[in-house]
Amino acid sequence: MKIAFFDTKPYDKEAFLNQKPSDMDFKFFDTKLSLDTVSLAAGYDAVCIFVNDDANAEVIDKLYSEGIKLIALRCAGYNNVDVKHAFNKVHVCHVPAYSPYAVAEHAAAMMLTSNRRIHKAYNRTKEFNFSLSGLTGFDLHGKTVGVIGTGKIGKIFANICKGFSMRVLGYDMYPDKDLGIEYVSLDELFKQSDIISLHCPLTNETRHIINRDSTDKMKKGVSIINTSRGGLIDAEALLEAIKERKVGAACLDVYEEEADIFFEDKSGHILDDDVLARLISMPNVIVTSHQAFLTSEALSNIAEVTIQNIRSFFEGDGALQNELCYRCGNIEHCKKGRKEKCF
Ligand code: NAD
Fold first, then answer.
1. Other CB atoms closer than 10 Å to residue 101's CB: what's the count?
2. Which of 204, 250, 319, 324 gets the highest tally of CB atoms within 10 A of its CB?
């Protein structure tokens, strides 16, 4: 089994090489998968890709024509793969959960950092500036947090917030009755929340779920946390709402146009993206570089499940457990009871 890895970083290589089975060959490419680089996959059985690789329809056609049988995502989200187009051509699998704790805890870390101005205090005390001016936060206790998407990560984040005695509101098409939170409409969540955290996938329905209209409906001073996908937020609308003092803080682990920026050392370069540069310049905006998944537990789980997925695809004769199946046109909910591969 020959696997071509795209967009690999030292921590990916380490995690995968630690668990490499002797019957698999791994080739690690630094470059992202795209139409320009897809030819590198020639001669391999599968490609292993991450969040900013681009498996669009044309790339999938090339992979198919080169005889590549499997796209193994080493992440949970799959908005960068045209799963519908891949149907009947190239199978797609992902790692549905590698450590939902890693992402939920990062969202909580950003919430606390932002509210208690830890990012400011850290820099000040490094310069022996012990002034407290401008560092006033607010008690989380008793505040209302709105969780959009209460799946694996959203549930853990909701429970962390309950630990702070916050009131938790949820919005999800599939409410979890056992979570012990109050489900409300999206508008109601916007209206009532002091903090809003995004944990739904990026789909046609959720793209720019945070936009001009939605920020208008929010409380003045609301904090917005996004550890899910950049495309959930219309960044220009967010910037405007921050400038108007409507949004009080933003914590962004993801950004819609992150693909050529995040994960790379751009210090010493001029940042061409004016919206991102302006957001980063704001004292009440914290940006991390798609870091929420990055714990040693998560990296090890990602490698283990990805290797299992690849083995199960090439050697198993039943269903591929983590296949992103498109047989009945609904990726999220067509897996139940399946006893064979998608096609
Ligand atoms: P999940 O599938 O367990 O949960 C997603 C939830 O969102 C589900 O309950 C689903 O019903 C809900 N949902 C779907 N469409 C919705 C909509 N239109 N409105 C409201 N809710 C909707 O996924 P998860 O494991 O919790 O991951 C959530 C997201 O986190 C992923 O899609 C991925 O984009 C992101 N993620 C980010 C990182 C990171 O490092 N920043 C790492 C892993 C995952």
1. 17
2. 250
